[in-house]
Amino acid sequence: MALPPATSGTTSGKDAAASKAAQRDAQAQDVFLREVDDALRQDEVQGFFRNFGKPVLALVVAGLLGFAGYLYWDHHTAKQADERSEQLTQALDSIEASNLAEAKGKLDPLSKESGAAAVLAKLSLAGIALREGRVPDAVKLYGEVAADSAAPQELRDLATVREVAAAYDTMKPQAVIDRLKPLAVPGNAWFGVAGEMVGMAYLQQGKKDLAGPLFVQIAKDKDLPGSLQSRAQQLAGLIGYDALADVVDDKGEAVDAGVKVSASPATVTKQ
Question: Which end of the chain is more exposed for a tag (fewer CB within 10 A), N or C?
Fold first, then answer.
């Protein structure tokens, strides 16, 4: 007797069951592998902290302490700066009120510190010393600021000019020139004051050919105070240099400052 042929429905059912079983096995294997991977990772982390936990913890703590220290230092520095600024302001108010003793009491501690407040305190103390007739003390303080490489260059230049002005009568002409010549150039903030002292030092050396053109430049600098221009104009005229107007040659062309006018207005001669 012949057997009936297998139906397609039965075959499809078996294949579907086998496919589902394979999927379950794959999912189970995937779960197993993930668990193994997680276990390995956990073991690696635990091993890392067993070996390096203390150094890492110490590093983190040190970092936090350093950051906290920086925040404290920044706050403390800002607070100190505010206190110095207030103390300096009070000292300047005392100077304006002619209470010099009180001003010195506030400025002396500041001058012994560092930073901009100390520089300003020394400059203020030097000014007080001049008002009290203590010229050597003023010169010393100005000299300290001028030689302070950490101070702003503008304040160092100011101190240099005031130091030389205070000590001018006791300095040799060449020393005055050496100290102030770098500042006695057009465009420099101290050109007028420094240039005038350098010009006077040249005259003391008998170098009218160097003093005259310098006085002419000062007299014609529109950015300088009128009193300084007028004084330079007079000094230039005394040694034969015309600072009233631009000098022209016999062709009507302008001649550089620093020429000495001869008896004939149409003729100029270089010194």
Answer: N
Same domain? 164 vs 179: no
Cβ(189)–Cβ(221) below 8 Å: no
State whether 224 and 236 are in the same domain: yes
The answer to whether residues 92 and 190 belong to one domain is no
Q: Do the Cβ atoms of 108 and 126 come closer than 8 Å? A: no
Query: Domain residues for 247?
Result: 173-271
Q: Which of 219, 202, 126 is nearest to 167 (CA)?
A: 126
Sign of the CA dihedral running 31, 37, 43, 45 = negative
What is the C-alpha to C-alpha distance for residues 95 and 128, in angstroms, rounded to an integer? 8
Total domains in the chain come to 2
Any idea what the CATH number is for the domain that residue 247 is in? 1.25.40
Q: Based on the fold, state whether residues 156 and 183 are members of the same structural domain.
A: no
Per-residue pLDDT of the chain (271 residues; tens, 9 = 90+): 455 555 555 555 566 666 666 676 666 666 656 665 665 566 655 665 566 555 655 555 556 555 555 444 444 445 555 666 677 777 777 778 878 888 888 888 888 887 788 888 899 999 999 999 999 999 999 999 999 999 999 999 999 999 999 999 999 999 999 999 999 999 999 999 999 999 999 999 999 999 999 999 999 999 999 999 999 999 999 999 987 755 444 554 555 544 554 433 333 333 3
Q: pTM of the prediction?
A: 0.61
What is the phi/psi pair of residue 105, to 5°?
Answer: -60, -30
